[in-house]
Amino acid sequence: MKTLQEKSTFAAAAALYLLLHLRGGATTGEMLAGTVMQLLVTAPYGIGFTWILVRMIKYLHHGRKLAWDRVARIFFTIGIFFAFFFGLHEYAGQAEKARLQASPERSAAEAAAPLSGLPAESAAQ
């Protein structure tokens, strides 16, 4: 990292990585715990895919090692993708849970519908 542009894009990638791993909470402690848990969940995926990709690049370039900042950029990029999709899955689960709590009589009919083979409206009757 020699130029200011390289340093600033590296810092932006790191900040985006941390921002997408950020999780909400009622208190600062809950937010910190959720963020750390999210980082711990996605880190093995990021490390594994980074290792595979770096090995492939090293093979394609006849054994030349990548600079540490390039490896870190690859890790941040992969981590950003995983954070986005894990966060999307988490928020969708929270929305589904809230939807089921909002209408318990409707959710009971929806739960019975697959068992009876009838549409949810018929199963409720």
Short structural description:
The chain has five helices and no strands. It has helices at residues 4-21, 28-60, 68-102, 104-116, 120-124. The radius of gyration is 22 Å and the shape is elongated.
Q: Would you kindly provide a written description of the structure presented here, covering whatever features stand out?
A:
α1 packs parallel to α3 (68-102) and α2 packs across α3 (68-102). This protein starts with a helix and ends with a helix. It has 5 helices and no strands. It has helices at residues 4-21, 28-60, 68-102, 104-116, 120-124. Helices cover 83% and strands 0% of the residues. The chain is an all-alpha fold.
Blueprint (SSEs and pairs):
Elements: H1 4-21, H2 28-60, H3 68-102, H4 104-116, H5 120-124
Features:
5 helices, single chain, 125 residues, mainly alpha
Q: Which class of secondary structure composition applies to the elements?
A: mainly alpha
Radius of gyration: 22 Å
**What sequence of helices (H) and strands (E) makes up the elements?**
HHHHH
Average of pLDDT? 86
State the total count of DSSP E strands: 0
Number of contiguous helices: 5
Shape: elongated
Profile the largest sheet.
none
**Low-confidence residue ranges:** none
The first-to-last residue Cα distance is 68 Å
Percentage of β-strand residues = under 5%
Q: Fraction of residues in helices?
A: over 70%
